[in-house]
Specification:
mainly beta, Thrombin, subunit H, 6 strands
Length: 81
């Protein structure tokens, strides 16, 4: 299958990340691919996840503000703001 996204291409990954969107914490998920401009995230469910949140990947000291571009039942495509 051909990747039709604009460059830069995303690199496959499998890292734990946290979607932070309220004071009480957030949702833990898996970062499935990552680029300079966005990512695909896998979560238990997208229900309750807002259109904008902060993505934290603690092992890499990575923190980015995100905007949801697309949603599936257990996956989100985001771009970094």
């Amino acid at each position: 299958m051909e990747d039709r996204r604009r460059p830069p291409p995303r690199q496959r990954t499998y890292k734990s990340g946290t979607l932070v969107f309220n004071r009480a914490g957030g949702v833990t998920g898996i970062v499935r691919n990552l680029s300079e401009t966005g990512a695909m995230l896998e979560v238990e469910t997208v229900i309750g996840i807002p259109d904008e949140f902060t993505l934290l990947i603690e092992v890499d000291h990575f923190r980015r503000e995100c905007q949801v571009v697309w949603r599936r039942p257990t996956r989100l495509g985001v771009r970094f703001m």
